[in-house]
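Students often ask why we bother encoding 3D structure as a string. The short answer is that it lets us treat folding as translation between two languages. Here is a chain of 220 residues written in the first language.
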Amino acid sequence: MRLRLLTVMAILLVFVLTACTDTDESAPETDPDKKGDATITKADLTEFEKQLMDLSNYTAFAYDINLHNQKAKGLQITVEHYENGEKVDKVINMESGLERVKPSDQLRVVFLRQQMNQGKEKWIGSVIRDNGYGNTENIIDSPSDDYTSVSSGGIGSDMPMNIGERQHAATIKHTNKTSVSQRTNLETEEDIKQATDYEQVYLLSVQLNEKALDEKASEK
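And here it is in the second language, the structure alphabet:
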């Protein structure tokens, strides 16, 4: 157990080092030259990071987020599990506060998936900032090995993000269907329905919030 924890911490440390960027203290609250309140793109992992993932038996989905609007106070990440088009569970659901994050700072979001023994798998979600990181984990049942196809796809190039609007970053599909489509621009409920209409699907998402979750709770 201790060795596993040290491995995870080492992985996160590597991401922290590569995610850090210079802070622009003079940046305005909103950058008019940028589209959206932030921009998300697939992180360009180094060969060392990729090899570390292989050695630790983790599959990584990593994304860099450049914040343009300082009104965003929280960054929420989720992994939702669907079966035959129906949502059955939230595997990961966490939010990281953005109080100290300045416009033009870079954030890194990392989803880690590890196959374990006895039909189990571990998920870790992490939000990494220049001044630290937060993460959560969950152990769930793995999809059956009987599926003939496992495919994943997600964001490749820059995509705009707006406060209060969920951005779907990636999907992982386990299916016996002969044809599998992967889409990144899931904008409507019908898009999500089509993307999750397989035996087992994981939907990875990020969202900027104008109020942090603890602020919302205090208002109730």
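Translate back mentally: Helices lie at 2-19, 47-56, 189-195, 213-219. Keep this in mind for the problem set.
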